[in-house]
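queue> pop job 88
queue> type: inverse folding (structure -> sequence)
queue> payload:
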């Protein structure tokens, strides 16, 4: 059990490499092969594995929930079926096969489609300084960074003299975050689902950074905003930042296929599309090492809100004033050609 009282996931590895399939997972060394991960729905539930082929069910599913696959586990067997109740794990979950080691490695790309990008560390510093500026924060103010990932902004914000609580659902990321924050007494990290935040001491600002909104259904996304409202002091501010906007996807400014060089060598290739029926970006990442060995994440899908639509959602959640910026200096209002969307909402 963890702090959220969840049962931990178990992995069921069905043996044997994939046969005849051309997908990168089948061409990965044994250590990278994947297992179907299952969760008991109730203590008496039967563990279930249902695989349609060497990659199992869920490989390429587009419905936002799928049987989870852990890149660190063994591959599934071909066409294996074990009957019982099946519990699906969504892509964004720590066991969903997207956020994890591969994501962290891929985050350290040397440059991206962002103009003037100088890498992850420089980006993080600029973003933290932008948060302080746009939220009007002073030393000693309290901030909730949710979701905080492996803590890069939380630690950078603490260095600005702020008291920061970072919240994320991924325990592996939180371990890295705690280790990075060891020298910083004013930062702490908590494990929680952003849809059901635990009570915290009221904060002056909540930040949701780097494309971390829209993972759920629109109803749940609204609940996330309402949860942020409950964490804030009266007059407090909420800042959401994303590079992925509707115009950027539709015009190809964020390309449908992109390859980035990685700091550790090799490349990251991203395939993505905006599904205009669901308004969700659907994508998948593949990391290729210098020797040509490929590893692929689970597919992801994120609801991309139009800027005004997001502002309206903030108002519905209880914010009064919502401002839309197109950059961290706050000088430019958001427009269709902006390199990012930053919404600052005040209670
Ligand atoms: C795109 S990353 C960004 C993280 C961080 N803001 C950054 O810029 O490094 C999104 C994060 O959301 C977390 N996450 C996904 N679903 C979550 C949930 N339901 N509750 C809390 N965190 C979640 C993931 O674990 C991941 O760390």
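queue> result:
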């Amino acid at each position: 059990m963890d702090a959220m009282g969840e049962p931990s996931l178990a992995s069921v590895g069905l043996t044997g490499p994939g046969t005849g399939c051309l997908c990168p997972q089948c061409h990965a060394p044994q250590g990278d092969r994947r297992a179907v991960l299952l969760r008991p729905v109730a203590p008496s539930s039967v563990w279930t594995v249902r695989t349609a082929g060497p990659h199992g069910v869920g490989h390429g599913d587009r419905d936002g929930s799928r049987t989870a696959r852990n890149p660190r586990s063994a591959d599934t067997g071909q066409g294996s079926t074990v009957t019982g109740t099946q519990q699906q794990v969504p892509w964004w979950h720590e066991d969903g096969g997207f956020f994890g080691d591969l994501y962290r490695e891929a985050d350290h790309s040397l440059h991206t489609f962002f103009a003037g990008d100088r890498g992850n560390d420089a980006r993080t510093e600029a973003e933290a300084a932008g948060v302080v500026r746009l939220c009007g924060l002073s030393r000693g103010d309290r901030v909730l960074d949710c979701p905080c990932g492996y803590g890069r902004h939380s630690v950078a914000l603490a260095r600005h003299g702020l008291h920061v609580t970072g919240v994320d659902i991924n325990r592996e990321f939180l371990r890295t975050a705690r280790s990075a924050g060891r020298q910083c007494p004013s930062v702490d990290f908590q494990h929680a689902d952003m849809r059901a935040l635990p009570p915290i001491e009221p904060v002056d600002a909540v930040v949701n950074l780097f494309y971390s909104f829209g993972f759920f259904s629109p109803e749940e996304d609204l609940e996330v905003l309402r949860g942020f409202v409950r964490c804030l002091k009266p007059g407090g501010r909420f800042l959401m930042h994303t590079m992925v906007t509707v115009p950027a996807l539709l015009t190809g400014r964020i390309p449908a296929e992109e390859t980035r060089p990685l700091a550790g060598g090799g490349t990251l290739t991203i395939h993505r599309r905006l599904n205009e029926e669901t308004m969700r970006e659907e994508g998948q990442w593949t990391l290729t090492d210098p020797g040509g060995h490929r590893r692929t994440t689970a597919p992801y899908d994120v609801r991309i809100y139009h800027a005004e639509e997001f502002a309206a959602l903030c108002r519905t959640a209880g914010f009064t004033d919502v401002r839309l910026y197109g950059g961290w200096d706050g000088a430019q209002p958001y427009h269709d050609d902006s390199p990012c969307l930053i919404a600052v909402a005040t209670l």
